[in-house]
Amino acid sequence: MGNKHGSLENMERERLIPSSLEQTYGVHEDDGEVKACGCFCLGSIRKKFKGLWSNLRAVVVNSWEVARSDPRKVVFSAKLGLALALISFLIFWKEPLPDISEHSVWAILTVVVVFEFSIGATFSKGLNRGLGTLSAGGLALAMAEFAHFCERFGAAWDEAIIIISIFTVGSLATFAKLYPTLKAYEYGFRVFTLTYCYIMASGYRTNEFMGTAVDRFLLIALGAGVGLLVNVGIYPIWAGEDLHNLVVKNFFNVANSLEGIINQYLDCVEYKRIPSKILNYQAYDDRLYTGYRSAVESTSQEDTLMGFAIWEPPHGRYKMYKYPWRNFVKVSGALRHCSFMVMALHGCILSEIQAPADRRRVFQDELQRVSTAGAKVLRELGNKVKKMEKLGSLNILDEVLKAAEDLQTKVDRKSYLLVDANSWEIGKPPIEFQDIQDISKTDDNDPFKYHGYHSFSEARLDLGTSRSPETTNLPFAGTNGFHKSLTREFSFKPERMVIQDEGDTYKSASVLSLVTFTSLLIEFVARLGNLVVAFEELSETAKFKAPPAEGRVEEEEVCGFWGRFWRFVKPRDRNDNLLA
Amino acid sequence: MGNKHGSLENMERERLIPSSLEQTYGVHEDDGEVKACGCFCLGSIRKKFKGLWSNLRAVVVNSWEVARSDPRKVVFSAKLGLALALISFLIFWKEPLPDISEHSVWAILTVVVVFEFSIGATFSKGLNRGLGTLSAGGLALAMAEFAHFCERFGAAWDEAIIIISIFTVGSLATFAKLYPTLKAYEYGFRVFTLTYCYIMASGYRTNEFMGTAVDRFLLIALGAGVGLLVNVGIYPIWAGEDLHNLVVKNFFNVANSLEGIINQYLDCVEYKRIPSKILNYQAYDDRLYTGYRSAVESTSQEDTLMGFAIWEPPHGRYKMYKYPWRNFVKVSGALRHCSFMVMALHGCILSEIQAPADRRRVFQDELQRVSTAGAKVLRELGNKVKKMEKLGSLNILDEVLKAAEDLQTKVDRKSYLLVDANSWEIGKPPIEFQDIQDISKTDDNDPFKYHGYHSFSEARLDLGTSRSPETTNLPFAGTNGFHKSLTREFSFKPERMVIQDEGDTYKSASVLSLVTFTSLLIEFVARLGNLVVAFEELSETAKFKAPPAEGRVEEEEVCGFWGRFWRFVKPRDRNDNLLA
């Protein structure tokens, strides 16, 4: 197994890891080096063994990591092994029904095929397999009878009928499989085709159509029964619970992203070089980026999990027939709608046009308040979803709406700071107005007081030096002249405008970009309302419990000695930032 | 079959159509009504037959639609039927090797299992199956020998060894299947487990381990051979081509979305009621929305297609060993990065805070130019990807950069129109400046000249009436007071501010929202640069052909009589908006 692992892993590396990564992670192909002194000299053999050994060690270490990060995988593997071992006792069956041993292989195969990670997937596949086998068996028996009947007209007739029927059934079932709305039953159609062909082929040879079909079906039922019993009976893994956890995780991820982005924006931290993976929307390990990306990207995973969850019987905390899993996905969709705004906010950090630091500081308090309140709402909703509690009478949006309102008012009152009056075509405004633009930096509420005034020209100079124009992550930057990004087009193209104008245009754009940032943040807050609506709908349909009354010690479901013990030793504030 | 279809379709409806839709589309469950007069009266039977008949008719009509929209599905189904029919001749095989007929079923099963829609998937599955079978066969034979060897120590030893080995192999292979980097080989591990158990079970009974393994492998090879031959030989369907087309389609979709959004913005068309599906980011049939959504949502489809495409041999226009499919996905990722900006632009239309129409008109020409030029760049790049041509010496971004620059300059020169000076804390600006804010509507370049001035208060009144605050798609709007969206919080909460202030805040926000729109559009243009870089990289690595020299009639690959005929009759301008 170890060797197999290794070879497969190498193939994997060759195929799936892009060359850039190989350099980063040191996946070199030194082992393939062929030396002139001969392939099989002792040194090279030793080297190969060493390589094999280190590969093996890496596999063991990685497996340990995988097992530790999700122990359910180990449990599931052991469960499958157990089910297989149980059912393979059939091989040694002797009396009273010797046929059982002969067809035991079907029961074993069924266990392998039906045993899926989550209970929902197991049920769904099991039902598909059962239906496919039953209907194909029925059809095959009927066709076999018909072929036998036709045999009297000539020897070749039954063969022709069997082949034609196989062609027809195969084609129709395959077309049905490709039919868009029947995609969920793809596996069923595959099993249908398989079973039909199998019964036709093996039945024709032994002329025991009926026996083949019935034996097979009984043993498949036995295999499915043992598989289900083991899978559901021992540490069941529920797709619904996975979906629930995924939605909760998304809430906390987006909240973290939001806070991080606003903090980074206010600290004026820029990317020295924007990772090309972000520019191409590929997976990349950046705290701000992964937060909202995971929420945006989880669509297909959610759909898959929901597809399985609806097959699962009521269980655990989901004690309701027809549990509204769809509403979980809906809440997650509403959250995604919010996280697109977080993504757009991140876009402001990625952009080449950056608002000057002093203007950002003017709105620092308000931006910070909206960010904190917004993230708090997300975390609170996430916790509510997690604990399956209703919202209660308190208005969860109160604080964030107030903060957004204050931000909007401040923007409104200070919007003269967000425009650059220098190049107005209506002529420059009176001199007092210009001065105010600079003086305003020393707002009394501003914690970052300047100790002296910059003159207007100095301020522009600052702006020029603080923005390093070396965000060059464009691999083909040298080949053609036009790959420079827009800003640099503006800034470094002497043939278009005179330098003075370019600086002004850039300055105006950079000042206005603060407006964009605040507008996007306010739009984010507006979208929170829709998220709350989706949550309320979920909490109604899924019959979430009422929140504990204020002031009362929160009652939790405590069961058994260990539960009481945990209640005794647990830290007080375990609900805050549990998943942060 | 018809009945099966029908019943499956009903299940589909029950499970997959949300109850709200059922009401809309008239999927009623009238048929289930049980009347007091008895279940089996003639009327109800007739009704049932009628229902069955209409169901059947719907299935046929829909199937015809599916077949017409993608005829490859029909071809593929027929191909599978043909391969099955060919291989099932083995059933009737008599001499010289009677064993063939006995094991023929394996060849048939292999055809069903390996035959996948695209060639890449077929190769990938075939290899997985081959490797899985071979390695499991080898291991099973070795273990069987070992079990036989141990039999001499006691009768139960071999049974114990077989069961323990099945448990171990099953568990380990399952764990490997769940190992994140080995996900692509999941099917291989499943086949490995299956084969191992099968050989152990059937070999133990007949004591013909070797025979079972070799026979099975030969027939599987035969089945795989016939399957591959038919699948590749007759009208092959390439995953690579699908990926290529998908990427091209995304370009045109995003371009359409962009143009549509800018037009709608300039025409001041608002959603009367924003569809809740858009708010929850679910699929919804809206021209602007589907355009960028399809580009954003195609990530997983692209990954799947790429996973298959890398298995495909050089073919058709992709005549290169190790074709850089990864770069197609990268280009699509860069396009996605752009389309997030288009999505944010759409967000401005969805937002409650809307810029006043007169201000939009001031920037109408510039916005329109950027939109047209941007969409043109996207379409041109899409066409280049489609025709696999390099960019050539012309700067594709020239026009859109110029347009964006002009827009930026105009914003710069007219930024006094983008702020509302009424509530500045530094006191109102001199009266001339205020007047200018209104007068500026009558810009000479503005095609929408006003015939009279509104006084300031009238303008505000207009604003209040033109914005209908009835965008109420909030189902729980009545239950709690705080589900109103942000704007309405601002506008209709008398306890927070005096009405005058609220109107001003809203007005200021609405005027500033135009800044957001233009900034986002300019950021979109900036991101186009990155897209061009990704395209250039693709065109280099995939060795796209040089573009035809200007003025020369475009040469196309014309092959055979029908090609020349088509060239003769085809419409001239077939590349424009081909996929639009």
UniProtKB/TrEMBL annotation, chains A, B:
Gene Ontology CC annotation, any one: membrane
Keyword hit for Nucleotide-binding: no
Domain of life, source organism: Eukaryota
TM spans (from-to): 74-93, 105-124, 161-181, 187-205, 217-238
Entry membrane topology: Multi-pass membrane protein
UniProt cross-references to InterPro entries, sorted A to Z: ALMT
Pfam families: ALMT
Record's keyword terms, sorted: Ion channel, Ion transport, Membrane, Transmembrane, Transmembrane helix, Transport
Localization terms from the record: Membrane
Gene Ontology BP, a term: monoatomic ion transmembrane transport
Family to which the UniProt record says this protein belongs: Belongs to the aromatic acid exporter (TC 2.A.85) family.
Name of this protein: Aluminum-activated malate transporter 9
